[in-house]
Hints:
The chain is α+β, with helices and mostly antiparallel strands.
Amino acid sequence: MTIHELQVLCLIMLLFAYVTICIDLNDAKRITRKECRAEIYYTNSLIVRLEEDQKYQLVRFLVNEHESVGMVDYIFPPGNYLLRNFHADDAIYGTIYENEKRIQKMLTYILDPDQAVHLGGECSYGTEVELRSYHLNAIFRHTLNVRLKTEQMCVNGQSMKCVLVGLIKRTLKYKLRNKAQCENDGSCTITSVDWTTVPISFDDLPQTKETYRDVLYDDKFGYYQTLFQASPNRPESLVGWYSVSPKVVKSGPSAEE
């Protein structure tokens, strides 16, 4: 690990240490949904400026912090469905705002000082949240399928690919947290853990446990492909899995935003 990477890792550890701190807004200006939308938009603008090695650097640090409390909620702001019972200036927006500011500091540190950030037109809050999942989904999939294709998942300590499967699943099912774990047989299991932490009542948590494995598809170059094991007791029942985040249909800010 280079000195720069070590410095970024230390910064991220400090940022995540404050994720669970309650923000006292009683004596401060209330943060609104509109202000959060602007910050999520700016964070997204930073993410799309990341170059190949910088994306991998971001992924490495996120994977290293995967077990940290609140990390997944930290990088994925809650969507409209999770906020449907909140007012436009509810205290939860203060938490979202602070989270985005911390992510921006991390990304600014990773980006080179001379990398320009091009800002376009802002979209609605919901669209900006969907774009976050879309951008991160693309980064996670590229790392799993291209950058790490010469490494076999859950073999010889290669757990990053398993965590990436869990993060990809999170971009597709934003209401559920999951746990990614390498098993002794070389498989990766993704288990639903709980709903995202917002004070909203959902139906009972669907207890799902999915299994994924790497298979060698190119003997000459030693390339591996991650497949879904359709039948838990049949390792040969490996099939492709849906991992691509749907293209986002953009919409402009509402009157309240």
